[in-house]
Design goal:
The structure is a homodimer of 428-residue chains.
Chain A lengths: L17 E6 L5 E2 L14 E5 L6 H9 L31 E3 L1 H7 L5 E5 L9 H15 L3 E5 L3 H13 L2 E7 L4 H8 L4 E5 L3 H12 L7 E3 L5 H6 L2 H10 L7 E5 L4 H15 L9 E7 L4 H8 L24 H11 L2 E5 L1 H15 L5 H15 L9 E5 L7 H4 L7 E3 L3 H6 L5
Parallel strand pairs in A: 5-13, 6-7, 6-9, 7-8, 10-11, 10-13, 11-12
Antiparallel strand pairs in A: 1-2, 1-3, 4-5
Family (chains A, B): Belongs to the threonine synthase family.
Organism (chains A, B): Actinacidiphila glaucinigra
Enzyme class (chains A, B): lyase
Chain lengths: 428, 428
């Protein structure tokens, strides 16, 4: 593993409250380095913490007086205390939108909120995870920031690397949406199209990282993955803080690799453990597109293992056929009394337009998946509409225009005259 | 004027500190209604205020404890005190990004900041002006929200109307960028393409508003224009608050109609009058694209009048050939010791890519215009690089992909193998 040979500049304080990497399977602990797989059992590593003890009210006040971005939660993240002073895109603290119009349409009576991550710097939740990975790369003295990506991550890595002064080299499937390709390329780093699916891209990156070529490279979602994943915890923190330091009853989360869902659950449990929110039951729901629904399929079949699928859906940002965290997602959905559900592409488009027409939020296909799944969960009695519910929109509709373009056209095109306006039947 | 006949629900408090509409030419005062031209001299109307008196420190604290959007400035806007509780997109308080990398490239030594309005809900500054116009429409009992638009405004009106429960009917030139068309249509309102330029669209809307068809319609940039324009003041407020309640030395602002520039100047003068910032000289610079540079042309020629042009530029959001506020822009640039400058389309594209590569910000063509003009102002000695400078990015690169798409492509497309990677010369 070439990255391991890079001299580590880590000190206790460089990773804030983080104390070690620990294996999710066997519990073995490792130092805070660019590692991602347990040397004992090959299980995935995650960041372990000595979280702040003491009065929750003091911690809550410290957070509330912090910056309007994820660094307000620095005391709970593997970053140095002065992280906000370093060049970074400073994502997060996006809007939690009270969605009363959508709630009426769907029959949600307990309060419905959209956590709208299209407000991030490159307009997807990926800015959160990249921000943390980048700080780890800086600490480890890595000089190239890299990733495999279904599109959103490519833009997030390109942009963050540009601002922070890293070289970047990003790998994408060759058939991505135009907007995501241009956005990934515009920041001036290397952008490499791979002839294959996302899973092929991912495999190639694992190969690269084991080769001398990869020396000094930080692959945010490979050798920096334990740090990267922690960025998703901030979604849990923000949702609860924006609700007035309270847990919601239901959260609907999209599943690509499944990492985001597992880290949101981790974040919620931390808030409870720290006394920042009152403990109560919450249900976590996973959302997939039918054309790439390995986790949903396993959930419905009552399986513990996730059988890989070949993706075929317009929701390309969720098109991971072999989701690394799939089994953990199944555990969490079952433990919390939630579910994993899927919707087809037509339902995804309908849900994007429903959200736009009711709340003025133009979501990416992934947002169509979560809103569509919410509707289906209610219709099938799997989600209690009397509960307070949060739905994630993790990306921006401008990046997946193709999904809605055929049915989102001008009502009419006319000459600039009142007669033409009347003739078009638009005079009301 | 049909809209005048609509019953007004205005009360003293519905418009907060606003006291009247007043003519910018003759000073004649009118009640706070859906009026936009002086009945005496046909000059444009603007909102006049009885701004809060008393201790600036108290007002500053009140603002700082307000929401993270434009409603924190409700005491300085023509909106009711409880405006934040109404359904609105709640734009504003976007990032002011310290742009040290760009500063180095351009030789700015006094501090350079990007006011990045791509972070607004529909990713342009138009959300600010629409938010205020919508509140006025609500107060006036209007039921259709409308506009003429070069694209950004169309999306902003469509989204805001959807969330607030208004019907919308939006008019655009028929040849807009794909992204802007889809974004305007996705919110489910009427979208009408007009065979002509933006100026043709604008003329048509003025005709519509004088016709019975327009009864009950709020054209945000026609009969609601005085309210609408005030939204741009919030850019001035935010810039100064985010600098630590301080005026910058230089601000570079794009010019379409010129309204935004005049209102930013108005906002700065209000902050000085209220004692919220210390008075000192500041210079206001206007930025145009060469292919639509009527104000820049007049500035350079020393003229007071602006001769209309037929626009031909990739910066379509600035392509207003007959800018209503052009003469006021000339006044302000000359009074403050600033300038109005223009750059050609190639320079616009170069500047978009420069900003992306240095700061990770992907700007719309309008942002390419301001950054390109900043570079030109420095090179020609018109702007002192030792001054603290703020440059506006008013929109999002995802909406004008065509501008950079031809030169923002993958470095290579390869099979997923290390050999292919090496063969492509990417192994560094």
């Amino acid at each position: 593993m070439a990255a391991q040979t890079v001299a580590s500049a880590s000190t206790d304080s460089a990773f804030g409250p983080a104390s070690a990497l620990s294996c999710r399977e066997c519990g073995e602990r490792f130092p805070l380095e660019p590692l991602f797989a347990c040397e004992a059992c090959f299980g995935p590593l995650e960041v372990a913490y000595d979280l702040p003890s003491g009065d929750p009210e003091t911690l809550r006040k410290r957070i509330e007086s912090g910056p309007n971005n994820i660094w307000r939660y620095a005391p709970l993240l593997p970053v140095p205390a002065d992280v906000a002073s370093k060049p970074n895109l400073n994502p997060g603290f996006t809007k939690l939108v009270k969605a009363d119009n959508l709630a009426r349409e769907l029959g949600v009576t307990g309060g419905l909120h959209i956590k709208d991550d299209s407000g991030n710097p490159t307009h997807s939740f990926k800015d959160r995870v990249v921000a943390i990975a980048l700080e780890a790369a800086r600490t480890f003295g890595l000089t190239t920031l890299s990733c495999s990506s279904t599109g959103n991550l490519a833009g997030a890595v390109g942009a963050a690397a540009a601002r922070a002064g890293f070289r970047s080299c990003v790998f994408i499937p060759h058939d991505l949406e135009e907007g995501k390709v241009v956005m990934a390329a515009v920041y001036g780093g290397e952008l490499v199209g791979i002839e294959g699916t996302y899973d092929d891209v991912n495999r190639f990156c694992s190969e690269l990282i084991g080769d001398p070529i990869g020396e000094g490279w930080g692959f945010v979602n490979v050798n920096l993955r334990p740090y990267y994943g922690e960025g998703s915890k901030t979604l849990a923190y923000e949702i609860c803080e924006q609700l007035g330091w309270r847990l919601p009853d239901n959260i609907v989360i999209p599943i690509a690799s499944g990492s985001q869902l597992t880290k949101i659950d981790k974040g919620l449990r931390e808030l409870i453990a720290l006394g920042l929110v009152e403990e109560k039951p919450y249900r976590i729901y996973g959302a997939q597109a039918e054309g790439c629904s390995p986790v949903s399929t396993a959930f419905k079949a009552g399986h513990d293992v996730v059988r890989p699928q070949k993706p075929n859906t317009i929701a390309k940002s969720l098109a991971i056929g072999n989701p690394a965290d799939g089994p953990y997602v199944l555990d969490i959905a079952r433990r919390t009394g939630g579910a994993v559900e899927d919707v087809n592409d037509e339902q995804v488009v309908d849900a994007i337009k429903l959200l736009a027409r009711t709340e003025g939020i133009f979501a990416e296909t992934a947002g169509g998946v979560t809103v569509g799944v919410l509707r289906k969960l209610i219709e099938t009695g799997q989600l209690d509409p009397a509960g307070e519910t949060v739905v994630l929109n993790t990306g921006d509709g401008l990046k997946t225009l193709d999904a809605v373009a055929p049915t989102s056209r001008p009502t009419a095109t006319i000459r600039p005259s009142l007669d033409a306006f009347r003739a078009a039947g638009l005079a009301g």
